[in-house]
Design a protein that fits this description.
alpha+beta, Beta-lactamase, 2 domains, five-stranded antiparallel sheet, four-stranded antiparallel sheet, 13 helices, 13 strands, globular
Length: 420
């Protein structure tokens, strides 16, 4: 009888734990749906770092005040979208822009905030965070913590040997979103891998979640965007450097770019940052990061934070499966891909960090332009690829218009010098 009672108690306890965990998952999913709903998304995106566990990464070593351009030219009023003329002002409103800022030749030419945001608002930049992780991988390589990006993942993370990452996946495959892992990035499906990773971050460990990945393609042959790949990059940074991700982020990036405010990075229940999407920063600091890449890895003091070679490699397409094109059979995206940087459908030497719901750091070296945009576009799960394509077309034409202004100034100066 005693043994029977013990067995029943154990069964009851196990059942309680099971239903408690199930309840917790449901609670997290309901909160997820609410945060991204049209009526709450504006507030959510500027307060994720206070609503959920986060670590603060303080700025230090002085703030670099972004200089404003005197008599700055106005942005183009219209842009072409696949043969259709669209108004820039309408696009800003329609895409639920919360902040938009433009720099030309290192000077601020435009800065506006919308939907309740201001210059002090910390916006979650979602997958723009990935491009920052890429920069830190380049720095860890430069400092010798990582021997080669052709190293297998399991050299640094043997605990992933039984997962998809133990099947010949290299660091380079992670950088290029070509690891071959089976993954769904469907934001509207609560059972998708990306949503379940959010559940794992709040109730468990992203490290353990990463170890559950299974293989779908041969590594290096197919471009499937999988946020978990970037999380593994963060794990490699921690394992190779012996530092927490946030400490390395602070030492090698945030304390060096003249940031005007702290960064806040969301963390899972073990304290590991959400490397793939968890950075919350102000709009001007997004510009500072973009300017770092425009300047080939040099900061405002001329200090080389990451090598010029790494910057150049990061924004190159290095395989057919990474080329832009809506008919690329080896890619699930119409854009091209580098090392956690996107290449537009119609590339012009430009590239962009892109985050879901409309977050961008766009860099156009040809015209010396950097653009930062934060947004809260609620229908992104439905038409996100079109929204991203429209944004990149708008950015390209803003940059070209600012570049043509250079040509006009040069022509005027030449005429003056010639006595006309």
């Amino acid at each position: 009888m005693k043994k029977l009672l013990i067995t029943a108690a154990v069964a009851l306890l196990a059942c309680s734990i099971y239903f408690y965990q199930d309840f917790q998952t449901i609670r997290v999913l309901l909160a997820y749906e609410k945060a991204f709903s049209a009526e709450h998304i504006d507030d959510s995106f500027r307060s994720f770092h206070t609503q959920y566990p986060s670590v603060e990464v303080k700025n230090s070593n002085g703030v670099y005040a972004l200089p404003a351009m005197e008599d700055a030219p106005k942005l183009t009023e219209t842009f072409d979208y696949e043969g259709e003329t669209r108004k820039l002002e309408d696009w800003i409103s329609r895409s639920h822009t919360t902040g938009l800022a433009v720099m030309k030749d290192g000077k601020l030419v435009y800065e506006q905030y919308f939907r309740g945001n201001n210059e002090n608002s910390h916006a979650i930049i979602m997958s723009v965070s990935k491009s920052m992780a890429s920069m830190l991988i380049g720095k860890a390589l430069e400092e010798g913590f990582i021997s080669s990006i052709d190293d297998p993942v399991v050299k640094y993370l043997p605990q992933l040997s039984e997962s998809a990452y133990g099947q010949g996946v290299t660091i380079k495959h992670l950088l290029q979103m070509s690891s071959g892992v089976r993954w769904s990035e469907d934001l509207d499906d609560l059972d998708s891998d990306i949503v379940q990773s959010i559940v794992a971050s709040l109730l468990g460990s992203l490290g353990e979640f990463s170890a559950s990945m299974v293989n779908e393609h041969k590594p290096g042959t197919y471009n499937r965007y999988a946020s978990v790949n970037t999380q593994v990059l963060g794990m490699i940074i921690e394992a190779s450097t012996g530092q927490s991700y946030q400490d390395y982020f602070q030492q090698k990036l945030w304390s060096k770019i003249g940031a005007e405010n702290s960064a806040h990075i969301q963390v899972d229940s073990t304290g590991m940052p959400l490397v793939y999407s968890g950075v919350n920063i102000v709009l001007r600091d997004m510009l500072r990061f973009g300017q770092l890449y425009l300047n080939d890895g040099k900061n405002y003091l001329g200090e080389q934070l990451v090598s010029e070679q790494w910057v150049k490699e990061s924004v190159q397409v290095q395989g057919d499966h990474l080329k832009p094109g809506v008919d690329n059979p080896a890619s699930d995206s119409g854009f091209g891909y580098g090392y956690q940087w996107w290449i537009p459908l119609y590339p012009d030497g430009d590239y962009s960090a892109i985050g879901i719901y409309g977050q961008f750091v766009y860099v156009n070296p040809k015209h010396g332009v950097v653009i930062a945009k934060t947004s809260t576009y609620p229908n992104y799960p439905i038409d996100g690829p079109y929204v991203d394509h429209e944004a990149l077309l708008a950015f390209q034409q803003i940059a070209r218009a600012l570049g043509s202004n250079d040509a006009a100034i040069t022509t005027a100066e030449t005429m003056v010098q010639a006595g006309h």
